[in-house]
Amino acid sequence: MMAAPEAEVQPPAAVSDLEWCEKSEETHDPQIEVETTSAQEPPNPSERLRPRDCVVPVVFPGPVSQEGCCRFTCELLKHIMYQRQQLPLPYEQLKHFYRKPPQAEDVVKKKPRATAEASSRKCQQTLAELESVLSHLEGLFARTLVPRVLILLGGNALSPKEFYELDLSRLVPNSMDPNLSTAACLRRLFRAIFMADAFSELQVPPLMGTIVMAQGHRDCGEDWFRPKLNYRVPSRGHKLTVTLSCGRPAIPATAWEDYVWFQAPVTLKGFHE
Question: What is the pTM of this model?
Answer without folding.
Answer: 0.77
